[in-house]
Each structure stands twice: as C-alpha cells, then as structure tokens.
Specification:
Helix content is 51%, strand content 13%. By secondary structure, it is α/β, with parallel strands linked by helices.
Amino acid sequence: MTKILIADDHGVVREGLKRIIAKAPDLVVAGEAETGEETLEKALTLGCDMVLLDITMPGRNGFDVMRELRSRKPELRILMLSMHPEEQYAVRALRAGASGYLNKDSAPQELMAAIQKVALGGRYISSSLAETIILNVGTNVEESPHESLSDREYQVLCMIGSGKAVKQIADELMLGAKTISTYRQRILEKMKMSGNAELIRYAILNRLVD
C-alpha cells in the first residue's frame, strides 16, 4: 500500500485528488497539507511514501519544499502538480529531483497513470513533454538567461511576465513587497535587463507565461 500526502492550498483540488486516488486499491491518502511548512512537517512525520506537490503554495514554494525533502528523505517520491504549462516548470522540476510533472488540467486517467508509475518507483512525463525534451537535445538550453535564476527568482520572473505588479506577487506568495522587489532587482541584474518591459517581452518570447 502506497501512502500519499496531498500538498495543495486549494481544498477543491485536494478533494478531487482524493476521489481519484480512492479508486485505486493499492493507494491511500495519508494526509493533506495547505502550506509549504505543513507539507514538510507531515511528509517527515506521517510515514508517507509519496507526495503530490503543488508548485505555488503559501510560504515556501514547491521547489523549496522538494529540495529539503530530497536532502532529508531522499527515498520519498514526489510528483509535481501545477496549473502552469509544462514549458514553464517541468524540466526545472525534473532537474530538481521530482519523479514526475503533471498539469492539473490533465485527465483523471492520466493523473492515475502518473501516480501509479511514480508509486512503483518510475518517472513520469507526458508525451508532449517527452517530445519537447527530444527536440531540445543538442541545443544550448542551459545557456538561456533565465536558467541562471534561482527557483524563487524564476517564479517571480514568470509572474512579472504575466503582468502582475510587485504587491500582487507579494500577496500571492505571502512575502513582503520589499522581498519581491529584491528578487526583481536580482533578476534584472542576472539577465542584464533594465526593467519590467524587457522582462515581460522576454517571458512572452520564451513561452514562460500562459
């Protein structure tokens, strides 16, 4: 029996995932978490085998949580779930140690297939993501300016790219506006850009926004 922790700040999403998982006799939901801190606590204390982990959560984001779990409980299997398109976060998530990545809009059958594969110790990527990875083989993907950003900086870049203001980003990530402004300044410096207009244009051209 595989014990699963569902980590998502939306109750409706958690309920939907529980209903899908309940249909499998070899899977059981061991617990739920709404924030990054709660996810860490429960993942380390509930004896779960697998975490369905959202990227965007209050407090510590999914990448922060995953990196700590990888260091403290490396045998734990993590399937990243996100509302963001694969082009934005999938490859970054897999590089960081996720066992798979799936968009929340995926059909229940695909979600179950992904959970089952990861539960058995495998890795899951969609057919469209596999095709993207194959097409990028031999290209200089690593040299893209945004690849130098930390996970949090990358998240802020994507939010700026979608037209969100500093205060709105701060509210959504439950961080101070000053902190977001600091991230923004680091992004501009690392990417050698002068302002939001350039960041937005870059994000659109590189398909980092919906």
